[in-house]
Amino acid sequence: MIAIIDYDAGNTKSVVKAVEHLGYECKLTREFSDIKNADKLILPGVGSFGDAMEKLERFELVDLIKEEVANGKPILGICLGLQLFFDESDETPGVKGLGLIKGKIKRFPEKEGYKIPHMGWNDIDIKDNTRLFKGIENHSYVYFVHSYYLDSEVREAVAARTQYTTDFDAAVEYGNIFACQFHPEKSGNVGLNILKNYCEV
């Protein structure tokens, strides 16, 4: 069973529907027993970094997530979920993230001709031999909605990059930790195949 972590964030139902569409059992939950008994975890989310961390703390999920990841359970972060895996964000200075991987979330620099947030389809430059992107053609297009981007200190964790007003890290794969800044559940067949790859890790 795949536990999709429920911390009152936006966009959870579309992730549930996508995983169920692929034929995998999943449950939107914040129950400790469900999370502990799950084979894999997904941390989705749309919203602000500080608000999300406050909710994870309020539901006492921070230590549980860290413990499950330390024990080797696979976890996938989507959009805000990816950002929460890192140390801090320009969006909410002073608020600490989960710190699963070293790195910072930064605000996109302004650039003439570009609107922030970065919203819509963009192609990704995929690193060779990643499990998350197995069978996915390089420079495939996926769907993004975000105003802040990842700058990972752990460069070997970066699985894909792209460009908007700057080059940035679009996905990570680091041991049992996987994450996408884009929304695989809104990225057509490419996104479904990425989710399928994660479900089969």
Descriptive overview:
The protein is α/β, with parallel strands linked by helices and 201 residues long. The chain has one domain (2-199): 3-Layer(aba) Sandwich (Rossmann fold), CATH 3.40.50. Helix content is 26%, strand content 30%. It is built from six helices and 13 strands. The strands form three sheets. The chain has an eight-stranded mixed sheet. Strands 5-6-10 form a three-stranded mixed sheet. A two-stranded antiparallel ribbon has the order 7-9. The longest helix has 12 residues, at 188-199.
SSE blueprint and pairings:
Layout: E1 2-5, H1 12-21, E2 26-29, H2 32-37, E3 40-43, H3 49-58, H4 62-70, E4 75-78, H5 80-84, E5 88-89, E6 103-107, E7 118-123, E8 125-126, E9 141-146, E10 148-152, E11 158-163, E12 167-174, E13 177-180, H6 188-199
